[in-house]
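Hi, here's the filled form for the chain we discussed.

Project: internal
Contact: R.S.
Residues: 293
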Amino acid sequence: MSLKVAFLGLGVMGGPMAGHLLKAGYETQVWNRTASRARAWQDVHPGGMATTSIREAVAGADRVMTCVGNDNDLRDVVLGSEGALAAMKPGAILIDHTTASAEVAREIAAVARSCGVGFIDAPVSGGQAGAVNGVLTVMCGGEPDTFAAAEPVIRAYARAVTRLGPSGSGQLAKMVNQICIAGLLQGLSEAVAFGQNAGLDMKQVLDVIGKGAAQSWQLDNRGKTMVDDQFDFGFAVDWMRKDLGLVLAEAHRNGSTLPVTALVDQFYGDVQQLGGGRWDTSSLIRRLPRRKD
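And the returned structure, exactly as it came back:
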């Protein structure tokens, strides 16, 4: 618990994750591009320290976590003369929780190695609720010894932390996760709309089929809110489209064929056209005609 940690990026995921580090007893410094958010985090986390620059945040840190928007954001925060790697001490470990490309993970791993810094790509699953409750699933890529040193810190906000291979493997596993979710949500949307149009009490139906082979996290946590037409929470459509863009680009590189994923990505484009960029991903059902009685 004597380790000093830094957390860069205090969005809906990063803010709670940094809070769990402080609660676990780690000396925690944070930075966010919008400085007011870092100050607000400090206000509700006495003992944590908001900093005004990346260099200040990571100075002397043993573990540095990042959780930002996309590949370019990650490069801005990590690489270059003002980035984290330029200021991290040799022997420290950089742990990236951004959902990004495997390509950028490998790029950062190479630069980190040249700086004498370890690197783990560690995207997460579990959404905002998982971050708040400290029960995220973390998919990791990197060297075994580096992972072994990083894992205890990650467990401050995770219920499962698994190394899946060399650098980039965590990001590839997150892509698998998003492929599964996209297909599940489209199927669930069609099922709920079908049942409503057939005149069924769909909340009762979901209770029944949730005890059988159709059960899934999405059915348990999103089925009834879909019936109620509620989408002002959760993982935003804009974020899912970003993730599916990474998936489809990687599929093009590795020769995979993803017809359902590509189609669902287009459907999410339709939801964006409806003004639903910030709606939860379960809003796919908004595209489908449903009985309202």
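Let me know if anything looks off before we file it.
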